[in-house]
Amino acid sequence: MTSTTDQVAHLADLAATTLLRFATAGSVDDGKSTLVGRLLHDSKSVLTDQMEAVEAVSAQRGQEAPDLALLTDGLRAEREQGITIDVAYRYFATARRRFILADTPGHVQYTRNMVTGASTADLAVVLVDARNGVIEQTRRHAAVAALLRVPHVVLAVNKMDLVGYQESVFAAIAEEFTAYASDLGVPEITAIPISALAGDNVVDASANMDWYGGPTVLEHLETVPVSHDLTACPARFPVQYVIRPQSAEHPDYRGYAGQIASGVLRVGEAVTVLPSGRTSVIEGIDALGESVDIAWAPQSVTLRLGDDIDISRGDLIAPSANAPATTQDVEATVCHVADQPLAVGARVLLKHTTRTVKAIVKEIPSRLTLDDLSQHPNPGQLVANDIGRVVVRTAEPLALDAYADSRRTGSFLLIDPADGTTLAAGMAGESFASTADTTVQADEEGWDF
Hints:
32% strand, 6-stranded mixed beta sheet, disordered C terminus, alpha+beta
């Protein structure tokens, strides 16, 4: 008889093989939207009316061939300027896998959108123009992917047709990027030479680069292993809503509803409620109107506990055997996404899972430069698109995991309490799984990124 652990592992593996979340990133005019359009078109994932609309707009512009970038650049300003501004999500499928794709902007001022698109990605495709090689924005996107712990990165060296399909050009760019991303701690890097415009090595293998023996972009996306062993992750259950119908049918029912952020929960398991620290036992699990003995991430369920404990939205339920520690001093790396600076002494709201608390920025110890991965000390503030270390003091204890251990319960947002603007996306714990020398240097006049 198959154990429940084996059943959960099997379901996790099944989900991993049928769905891949990935994001595209790269500098302006590197061809991200064209690559996405080519993927959609050549994988037969474009509806007839969509293609007809693209052909009509392309003809109006005097273009001989359809501009496949129009399949993703949906905003009017994007179409008029020929750039990507917002994150464009696309859903498509092949016979081997389903995909959720986030096409993110290339402009420096829209780097914050790349954080949004890559935050849930299993893989990031970083495009480089073969004529320009690795530039600052390439390094920025690699750093963001590393910070967000994206496990797989594809370097797509685009516009190979404009450099005569030379292997030496591709090899030099691949070597430079791989060395840089490896120093950031990116665990897997795959380099693929492509021409998104001509279709070389995107869906079909290129006849112009017989020196390349690796997979096409789509082949790699279809076969890259994306394994989420849910049984190996500590269970975390942020409470979203307390259900108390107090009806004639359910006079004493008290359930705690939410989505399991990670791991597995079982009936009979001893649990701790944080931040209070009170303990109880899972008496029942309700899922889709039925009682079940076991549930796992990312299911939405209702837990019933054996003890009447004061629990409300924002509390976290976790197995007592491996419950996270609570803290009011949060040390983290943040990507600053707002136009207004984040300064030492700023009063903010910190949103972690379903819990929002008041907080104050106590320190900004350093800011990262992407050229040499060094930390520049005590910048005083962070501005839009800066990546830096912060120390935040919260008014109430939080149960955070390290981001390296859990992308769901190790992440948080800093919010402006005045108008609700998101200021920064934070990742608790260490910055990178990096082997690079990040010796702190003095801040230089005119340095920014």
